[in-house]
Structures are given as C-alpha cells and as structure tokens.
Write a structure and sequence with these properties.
alpha+beta, NADH Oxidase, four-stranded antiparallel sheet, 8 helices, globular
C-alpha cells in the first residue's frame, strides 16, 4: 500500500507542468475548488499560523479585467478560475484562534496552549514587518505548491503567475494593507500540452556532509 501511494505521488509530481493554454469552455464547479483548497490548507506553516488567504475569481467579466492587470496573460481569461494567494503580514492575529482550537480539539492541554500563545505573541508582535513578510511569503509558497499537486491529482492543470501589478490588484479587490498578493494560480483543463522542461542535475546541487 505504501509503495503504491509513493508511486502515485511520484507520478503526479512528474506529470505536473505549467499549462498556459486552457479549454475556455470547461468550468470547475466551485465545490471542487473548495475541496482542493480544503486539502491545500493542510500545508505546514510557521507556528501553524496559516498566513494565507484566497480570492477565487471565476466570473468571466472579472477575469477579463484581471487579464489587463496581469500583463495580458491569456490563461487569466481562459482558465476555469484564478486563485489569488495572499500572504497575511499580521499573522499574529491568528494566534488565539489557532491554539484555542487545538485545545478544544483535544490536541493540547490548557497549560501548553497558554504558554505557546504567550511565546508566539511575544515573537510575532515584536518581529519586524520584513521578517513577517518573509514568513508569509515562504508559507504561501508551501500552500501554493500543495494546491497545484492536489489539483493535478484531481485531473486539473495549473500555472502560477507572479507577473501582475500588485498595487492595481489590491485596489481592484479592495485588499487591505494587512495582506500582500503573492501569486495568481490559473486552474482548469489544458487545451494544449505544456512545454517540457529540464532540471539541473542533482549531483550539481547536492552535498552530503
């Protein structure tokens, strides 16, 4: 069973490629996108503070407007949906919610929860904005990659896009300064094969000590 699971994951990883040509007539139901995101947010994060938020854009007219913000990239308009991944620079607001929930679920005793809450508040509230932005950027990278692998496992294709006007995006979608747009992820059904790519040989980038 374990070898089968590993093989399936290996196949998904090897088959996932960045797709930029989508079948514009194909639409993923919102329920399925919610299922994908429900699994994606099981990704790890610093202190489990989950500094990510998502805006799912599947309205065709809004996607047309977004295309202009995203350097006229075709996949913005032709994919089933665009999932905007935002980083939460003030993830310390999640501390109480996360750890009280762990206590209520029976995962931690009250003494441990109180100690972690205090330690986390001390660290994150005193950390510079640059440090918190770096944490949020790293963690949203984890959830984004997990999202794309889950999508591929369900038969969908994706591509990440960092090339968009973030200031215009924030204004368009009324995003407060607490959050920062990280990437846009197009998701849908490929209309053409993705370009194959190579990787730097592992022996050139690995060192055992």
């Amino acid at each position: 069973m374990n070898s089968l699971i590993k093989q399936d994951l290996s196949t998904i990883i090897r088959d996932r490629h960045s797709v930029r040509k989508y079948d514009a007539s194909f639409k993923i139901p919102r329920e399925e996108i919610e299922e994908i995101l429900s699994e994606a947010i099981l990704a790890p994060s610093s202190s489990n503070l989950q500094p990510w938020r998502f805006i799912v854009i599947d309205d065709q007219e809004v996607k047309k407007e977004l295309r202009q913000i995203a350097n006229n990239q075709e996949q913005v308009e032709t994919s089933s949906a665009i999932i905007a991944v935002l980083g939460d620079k003030e993830m310390y607001h999640n501390i109480e919610k996360v750890y009280r929930s762990n206590y209520e679920a029976g995962f931690m005793n009250l003494e441990t929860v109180e100690q972690i809450i205090q330690n986390s508040k001390n660290y994150y509230t005193q950390a510079s904005e640059e440090i918190r932005k770096n944490i949020a950027s790293f963690d949203t990278g984890l959830v984004s990659m997990q999202l794309m692998l889950i999508a591929k496992a369900k038969g969908y294709d994706t591509v990440t896009m960092g090339g968009f006007d973030k200031e215009k995006f924030m204004k368009k979608f009324n995003i407060t300064d607490r959050y920062m747009p990280i990437v846009l992820i197009a998701i849908g059904k490929a209309a053409a094969p993705a370009y194959q790519t190579t990787r730097i040989p592992l022996k050139e980038i690995i060192e055992f000590i």
